[in-house]
Amino acid sequence: MKKLIILRGIPGSGKTTHARELMQYYIKEDKTVTHFEADMFFTKPDGTYDWKPSLIGVAHKWCQDKVRNALNTSDVVIVANTSLTKAEVDTYVEIGKAAGADIAIQRLTGNYQNVHKVPDETLQKMKEKLQDYPGEIIL
What is the three-class DSSP state of 77? Predict the structure, then answer.
């Protein structure tokens, strides 16, 4: 059965690191695995990150399309975005349900350096906006 793992949390909570760990685990289990984040949309081929606030909606649509397509070809698909609200998580849950995937939702709560240097006041606002999601596992 296909599996969709939705990782969520504020910047610096450990989403990307956990996604990489999960990928390695499933690869060792001989599963095909893909991983997407909206941030990947803003990463140039040379690895530089070029975030443009005006394109955030486009980036999330791109990520949703990548996840939807990957559920047709991979055993395990991991998506790691902030997904602060229930509605943002629901979008991926619906994508997973449409593909007949088993869905796991994990909220990361680590306090690591955020690689995109999001200001502390923005992180605080994001923490305040973060909504619980029924059935999520908090790590």
Answer: strand
Beta bridge partners of 137: 106
Looking at residue 40, the DSSP 8-state letter turns out to be G
Q: Could you give the CA distance from residue 54 to residue 99 in angstroms, rounded to a whole number?
A: 30
CA 138 to chain centre: 14
Task: Give 42-97 pLDDT, tens digit per residue.
Answer: 999 998 888 898 999 999 999 999 999 999 999 999 999 999 999 999 999 999 99
Burial of residue 51 (number of CB atoms within 10 Å: 0-12, 13-18, 19+) = middle
Model pLDDT, residue 50: 87
Global confidence as pTM: 0.93
For tokens 């007949």, name the residue. Answer: 100
